[in-house]
């Protein structure tokens, strides 16, 4: 699995999907650039989401708010006070860690130990093994389980109270060593705010401090009444947005899974108070189905309910995806209550209420949000579509089975050779297709190698123009996944490809 992930990462670079940022200066940690094929794939994902949200739902409209916002926004949202992670350093390796992650890793190790004991006992007892009974009576596993429960409880209390001394005590009590230096020489645990800040205008003082938004949602909340009034929207309605967000993640790793600059695709759905649970369930199901429609395999998605709710939520879950490093959060669905709008009312002194003409009453709507990371979605598609195949003739190929509607190029136009007018004929075909389908033109190299290169960038179809084309106006269409070819009349090509490349 680990090797496969490495191969995906190097493939992404070699074929123009993702480059480390400012690579000639050795890169910038957890920041990445999208190359010529990556940008196309990313745009297609955005379009797939945007169309689903705004075209298929007549009560959802899209906006594009600025990254900079009035600094009070982030006081009202709770980010200035509470958007932080507990962090500590190992004094020997100088490495920085998230305290909660170290503790969770230690818990996972204890869970592993219990699993090993169970496995051993199961072998020893054979058919007569009773797992429940074993767990309840075996002194060693009972002790581990008590320690796990106790640690979980202490972690939860420390996190809820933002008690950094208690976090440190947990690290000490669990005897956690730095995986790099092996030592237990830790600094104190400190709160580390994840927001990036800078100064606006020419005077560098605290009054001019602005933040790079850590989520796109607040741009929607502060515009809630602008959109509702100018669009004459009636509750329930939604506002969708795609845009950059920035978080100074302490532990940035796993390629584009956790970045410091990333993009979110968020939709805030405004509902009548008391109806939020109905809509929460509605959007859970809808979003899951949307992901599964892509065809990467329904078994690769699952729900994960949040037990520890954020300060603004009364229900929350993730849609997790089976990434190369295991099931991890891809999208969050949160019932945010009226927390944000109420808080913005308080801090701004402006009313943010909706007048419900049917009920003849004013109220602050409740919000159900769906928030998916564009880059995580990109990674899910890249990782699952990357396949190393052994072919019947013994050769190997790497193919990206990207769902056709999202593929960077839908079709490659390949004249078998440059001469005899084949290039001209190929150009003529391309001119007819290129407005409707993203085409790739290539006339160099043997046809087999050209097919392989298209496989590697995920082009679902190749059209080959040969001498027969000049005689009877047919071409061959080669299918990326089956590698089968069929002869098709030129006049039928466009319709065939358009329907094959739509959702
Ligand atoms: P995590 O627990 O992984 O840090 P989160 O719960 O903080 O994520 P949200 O605040 O709910 O994430 O953000 C919504 C979505 O934005 C996430 O589901 C994820 O897809 C994406 N996202 C969040 N942080 C990052 C990041 N650092 N890099 C890339 N995508 C991210």
TrEMBL record:
Q: What's the gene?
A: glyQS
Can you give the residue ranges of the Aminoacyl-transfer RNA synthetases class-II family profile domain? 195-415
Quaternary structure (record): Homodimer.
Q: Which domain of life is it from?
A: Bacteria
What is the designated name of this protein?
A: Glycine--tRNA ligase
> What reaction(s) does this enzyme catalyze?
tRNA(Gly) + glycine + ATP = glycyl-tRNA(Gly) + AMP + diphosphate
Please give the CDD domains that the UniProt record associates with this protein. GlyRS-like_core, GlyRS_anticodon
Provide the alphabetized UniProt keywords. Aminoacyl-tRNA synthetase, ATP-binding, Cytoplasm, Ligase, Nucleotide-binding, Protein biosynthesis
Q: Which NCBIfam families match?
A: glyS_dimeric (TIGR00389), PRK04173.1 (NF003211)
Where does the signal peptide begin and end? none
Kindly indicate whether the keyword Calcium belongs to this entry.
no
Binding sites annotated in the UniProt record for ATP = 247-249, 257-262, 329-330, 373-376
Role: Catalyzes the attachment of glycine to tRNA(Gly).
> Which top EC class is named for this enzyme in its record?
ligase
Q: Which GO terms describe its molecular function?
A: glycine-tRNA ligase activity
By sequence similarity, the record places it as follows: Belongs to the class-II aminoacyl-tRNA synthetase family.
